[in-house]
Amino acid sequence: MTRPRPVYYAPLVRRSSPPLRRRLPSLLLAVAAALAAPEDAAAFLWPNVPEQIGRALASGDVSERRLAATRVGELAPETALGLIQKGMSDPDVEVRLHLARAAVSFRMPRAGDLVVEWLGEGDARLRLAACDVIRAAPTDRSVVALGRVLGDPDPHVRIAAAAAMGAAGLPDAVSPLLGHLDDGAPEVRAEVARALGRIGDARAVVPLIGKVQDAVPEVRRATARALGELGDARAVSALILALQDQAQDVRVEAVTALGRLRSDEATPAIAELVAASPGGLGGSGAFPGARAADGGTSSNDVREAAFRALGRIGSDAAVRVLLAALAKDDPAAPRSAVRDALVSAGRAAAALAPAPAGAGGAAGASAAGAGAATGATVQKNAAVPALIAALAAAPSANTAAGAALVLGELKAREGLPALVRGMQRGVVPLRHGLRALSALGDPAALPSVLELLGDADPSVRREAIRAATALLDPARPDGRAVDPARALLNDPATPPDEKLALVRLLGRTGSPRAQEVLLPLAKARSGPLRLAVIEALGAARAAGKLGAAVDAALLEALDDESGDVRLRAAVALSRVAGPGIARDLLKRLTVAAEQDRGALGIALSGALSRAGDAGGAKDSAADDLARDVAAAVASAPDAARDALLEGLGRMRGQAAGAALARMASAAPIDDRRKIAEALAGHAGHPGAAAALRKLAGDPDPGVRANAVWSLGAIGDKDALPLLLPLVKDPDAAVAGNAAGALGRLAGRAPASAPRAAAALCAAFSDARPYVRANALAGLTVSGARCDGAAARDLLARDPAEAVRLAAADHLAQVGGEDGRRALARCASEDRNATVAARCAHAAPPRAPPSGAEDVVVFVVPFDAGRGDAGRDAPVPRAPFALVRADGLMRLGVADRRGELFERAAPRGPLRLAVPAPLVK
């Protein structure tokens, strides 16, 4: 049984005050969100403004046309693109420049063809603008035309032309670029080298090798990076020579390129960088002429780049160098370049290893292709055996601790015996060994951890408690930790913070004996201890009298004066309360006005999720309960209606699904919105899909958004004709959810995959960022793909962070060698740190999330003036954007409690992005 996991969220955007939002009708919420949006959000325009701008662009008054051109960017894309196309031939330079900027911001399809003639204009500003437009929206014709601009007298134009040619990635651009690799301006030479690296044509390798010794450091730096992107083993010797360059920026790029080439031939040279002391590479250190800082790059940056390169090479020799570097590493540091490199070596070797017999040819072919492209030899996993051997010897404390931590992060269970023996011998420091065992995640390590719960060193005890807690799972009851934890909990000498941790540990055991220990503490006077006990009692459900006693204790806590206690008790009841107390909770929710209805609603919906026809056997008591809950909806106050409807959605059995389907047609807007969400829990009911198809045509966009998302969860191929046109719905939440629903549907029904994929590929040109992002995520979850260049273009040029993140995930799964190259460029060039990090870590195909769980999310506003979200309550009907672990984004508005419920969300991290109405 999945359990609801509450998530509290404070979106970092300005919003209107809750009283104002409560007074607004639901149809005005989008306007209110726009008025409350940050300065860069789309401004509200009166309906006659586009017509006025269009007339002004055709005016004979040049000043009027210029003013109108500056306002084209404010219009909706479908209106603006037509005006841009007409105005690109305007005789006034200023008008054309303004329209060119608008074309770039809108990513106007095939805009490059409209500005080809500008490349011959006498005004350098027009030639520059043409290059910018072609870079944003290249076509074959416009990119080829850029070749003649590489000889432009203005170096800025030549730079822009080379950048545009590189961004387009067309092989036809290679020859013109090679002809200008010796341009008189060093900035142009550097841009030409970068462009050749982006295109990835092997014809550029030998000419670029000759530029490794260019007189200008920036050219050498760009050349080294380009050679790494090209991935040709012929460049290894030149790059090794570049490791001795006087400019530290060049050395960083050279060693990074060698890492990309995975050349073991370079390991000895890279080892020299690692062997130098962290501060010893500057001044008169290992490299003649090296400076303490060069272009913002320090000697430590060179050393860390060397570690990363060795990790990517991952050979026996590279691993030996990294193991030796552990001796000078600090194991107490949260992150370490040496440890990260060893982890990278272990993971890369596993990813490049040949596919096992019978595992299918695709994975093996992909790995072989990657190895051939880089000129590397596929290495066996040298890291794990070397780490185990190091622990078996007599390493220094730092080396042993670092090796243990790396084994833990690699989840190398074969290293468990060596790790435990190292701790017993005193070779591995206990604190670091326990951290490693925690990261390892192997339940077989639990006895070794429990032995240290009573250690005399407080830091070891705390680490042991944390490790034991991490190794336990309430879904798999394990009573081995109960007795040692109880002994420490009853010991008066145990510090309060350790008692809190021990209580959480007992909850994680899932053992009935642990709940016997916890029950007497449910009324503890200490507030933190009582909260911890209540939370621990909700970790796992007990049977029989013990379960009834737990339910009674949690029910009593629902009456507590403290809101924190009531909320914690409600969450615990939602996880463990049986259907037997659901009627008591139902009565409290609908009748007792003095009760905390918010807490009761959380508890009731969870209790109802365990009522139904388990195993297919009809449960008449559950059907009666479902009918009673449905009857209570009509007379319940607004504060309780959403909880009741959510509970019906979480109930199993035909009665609950029938009640929701019956209420869907005549319910108020807020009820319909919640019913559309709740029907996602009734895939087996024949009327659920029919009710959702009807709700998908509701006049309220919030209802449509929830209905479309639920159809993605339970719909079949018959839902496809309904979902296809909704990808173009005027409401961004509806269209985005439709894109996500198509992806989920295509994953379940392969027969519908071609039509769904075609619609998702077409959505790449949608003006709304979240629609583009969900189209990419939908393709990823369904395993489909479009023309590979389209996703790479979105990763390189889309202005929206959400789209580039989705493109990175998509290319990591289905992008092939071209996708790998695009991710490498993104990791080094994207200006957004989040996107760059995703690209850097997305190269190995991401494993799909394992398992699913029900998730409760409370949307809490962030007041920019107060700067403190903790004092605010969830906002009713607040817009949200929930990003799931599989990359899909659910859009919509919260219910009347400021809550949303996501059925069977994939396990993994959840985050909430800026809501769709606030995103331009």
TrEMBL record:
InterPro entries linked to this entry: ARM-like, ARM-type_fold, PBS_lyase_HEAT
Keyword field contains Hydrolase: yes
SUPFAM superfamilies: ARM repeat
Swiss-Prot/TrEMBL keywords: Hydrolase, Signal
Cleaved signal peptide residues: 1-36
GO molecular-function term, one example from the UniProt record: oxidoreductase activity
Pfam families: HEAT_2, HEAT_PBS
Protein name in the entry: Phosphohydrolase
